[in-house]
Design goal:
This protein is of the alpha+beta class. It contains five helices and nine strands; from the N terminus they run βββααβαβαββββα. The strands form two sheets. The protein has a seven-stranded mixed β-sheet with strand order 2-1-5-4-3-8-9. A two-stranded antiparallel ribbon has the order 6-7. The chain is globular. The chain starts with 21 loop residues before the first strand and ends with a helix. Pfam families: AhpC-TSA.
């Protein structure tokens, strides 16, 4: 671990190197953050494929894909869902995104996007809807945690000067 990486169990902050990962995508292929070295990446962490909020968020990121791609950003969604469920989600919702499966939630935890949260007024363990903008140098440029799905992508675009 480099001096720029958060210690184990600590949530990465703006300026830290993003946690490295390699996960299986919806096509059964391995995808690593290192595959995008030199390019900006938006990683959005979401609770469950096919649920209303997650579908809204994924569809909005997919729709913004051409604008983001032109501006030099690759969008990656991470959830605990299986690759097969992600493939169905992508097909059913006509998504043009990289969707990655993190069934043991290790990558979600490394980003601080899994843990205690409120769900319908109760404290539960789960995915904390979060988005991270990672620069071409691998450092976190924006960390948006515990966000609401509706309107989130528009806020991300505005924060990048694209909306």
């Amino acid at each position: 671990m480099s001096a720029d990486s958060p210690a184990a169990g600590q949530v990465p902050a703006v300026g830290d190197l993003a946690p490295a990962f390699s996960l299986t995508n919806s096509l059964g292929e391995q995808v690593s953050l290192a595959d995008f070295a030199g390019r900006s990446v938006i990683v959005f962490c979401y609770p469950a494929a096919g649920t209303p909020g997650c579908t809204t968020e994924a569809c909005e990121f997919s729709a913004a894909g051409p604008t983001l791609d032109t501006a030099g950003y690759t969008v990656i969604g991470i959830s605990p869902d299986s690759p097969a469920k992600l493939a169905g989600f992508a097909a059913d919702s006509s998504l043009d995104l990289i969707l990655l499966s993190d069934p043991d939630k290790a990558v979600l935890r490394s980003f601080g996007a899994y843990g205690e949260k409120k769900n319908y007024g109760k404290l539960v363990q789960g995915v904390i809807r979060s988005t991270f903008v990672i620069g071409p140098d691998g450092r976190i440029e924006q960390a948006l945690r515990n966000v609401k799905a509706t309107g989130h992508v528009a806020r991300v675009l505005a924060g990048l000067g694209l909306g």
